[in-house]
Write a structure and sequence with these properties.
- The protein has 248 residues and is α/β, with parallel strands linked by helices.
- It has 2 domains: 88 residues, Translation factors (Elongation Factor Tu (Ef-tu), domain 3), CATH 2.40.30; 146 residues, 3-Layer(aba) Sandwich (Rossmann fold).
- It is 21% helix and 33% strand.
- The protein is built from 7 helices and 12 strands.
- Strands 4-3-6-1-2-5 form a 6-stranded antiparallel sheet. A 6-stranded parallel sheet has the order 10-9-8-7-11-12, sandwiched between helices.
- Strand 3 and strand 4 form a beta hairpin.
- It is globular and about 50 Å long.
- It binds flavin-adenine dinucleotide and NADP nicotinamide-adenine-dinucleotide phosphate.
């Protein structure tokens, strides 16, 4: 076994839909920061196939949780979806990634914009104390194709109950009509103001920090809309307001 991996065990595989599942894993890779990603691996034809997956679990929890979609004809994700409690899995030894609050400058509002499984790192962050201590408002935006993909409702309802005036949750469903979710896509809703109207919060340079995660096309298109509003990419040498992670 390559020294980059440790042996670990699946403790639960929760299927939300035919293609979406959450894996809980037991092992010991030491510390990570909410918002980071680890690696999951399986032996395929005598070789460990590994891919990065964001932690949905928070550092204080005693298991690791990952939220994944079966990518059609994908090499690893359909295999991960079939795992059951007790199955062996490889865990990458080290966590990585910069979509973390320690990289985010202070602001009034923290926007977390996600598509699909890109909601994962934001759930990890929201399970910790830090966002509630640092920001007046935390706005979680989750864009999916169908309402059944608006997963993690029990956790999201808990966050709403715990932080009633500080937390806003804005779901988008793009491919069917719903009563409660916004229709369409995130970038268009930034452009025409419906996202801010729904959240009851304005996006403005200096006031807002925006984190984006998931589909790279959403990340690119939303970033363009935010740049038109004067926000800039957050870099260590030149702090700004936009922080991103692409899943492919
Ligand atoms: C930093 C980072 C963190 C990631 N975290 C997650 C995570 O928390 N959850 C998760 O589901 N995926 C995540 N991914 C994607 C994941 O690593 C794999 O790429 C994905 O599971 C597909 O692997 P595969 O071997 O099945 O497909 P492959 O055979 O490697 O095929 C890859 C192709 O699948 C598509 N694809 C990859 N990821 C996705 C996705 N999430 N949704 C839709 N299409 C995709 C793209 O077209 C990509 O080119 C992350 C990727 C990165 C770079
Ligand atoms: N979700 C499914 O039912 C399903 C089924 C089979 C296969 N898959 C495969 O699984 C992968 C991931 O599916 P997914 O549903 O998580 O992800 P997805 O295709 O990224 O869709 C998630 C959300 O992102 C939106 N989106 C797509 N491009 C965008 C852009 N440029 N700007 C803003 N928003 C954008 C989608 O809107 P639009 O609806 O307008 O595109 C949708 O609301 C894909 O490779 C897909 O082929 C998914």
């Amino acid at each position: 076994m390559s020294s980059n991996w440790i042996d670990a065990k699946v403790i639960e595989n929760t299927h939300w839909t035919d293609t979406l599942y959450s894996l809980k894993v037991e092992g010991d890779i030491g510390d990570y920061e909410a918002g980071q990603f680890g690696r999951l691996g399986l032996m395929v034809d005598d070789e460990i196939i590994g891919r990065p997956y964001s932690f949905v679990s928070a550092p204080h929890e005693d298991f690791y949780e990952f939220y994944s979609i079966d990518v059609e004809e994908g090499l690893l994700s359909p295999r991960l979806g079939e795992l059951k409690a007790g199955d062996h899995i490889y865990l990458g030894k080290k966590a990585n990634g910069f979509l973390v609050l320690s990289e985010i400058p202070d602001a009034d509002d923290l926007w977390m914009l996600s598509t699909g499984t890109g909601i994962g790192p934001f759930l990890s962050i929201l399970k910790t104390e830090l966002p509630w201590q640092r920001f007046k408002k935390c706005i979680l935006v989750h864009a999916v194709r169908t309402a059944s993909e608006l997963t993690y409702q029990p956790l999201i309802n808990n966050l709403s109950a715990q932080h009633p005036s500080q937390f806003e949750y804005v779901p988008f469903v793009s491919r069917e009509k719903t009563q409660h979710a916004l229709p369409g896509r995130i970038p268009a809703a930034i452009k025409n103001g419906t996202l801010e109207d729904r959240a009851g919060v304005k996006i403005a340079d200096g006031k807002s920090q925006v984190m984006l995660c998931g589909n790279p096309d959403m990340v690119k298109d939303a970033r363009e809309m935010l740049e038109q509003r004067g926000l800039t990419k957050n870099l260590r040498r030149t702090p700004g307001s936009i922080s991103t992670e692409n899943y492919w």
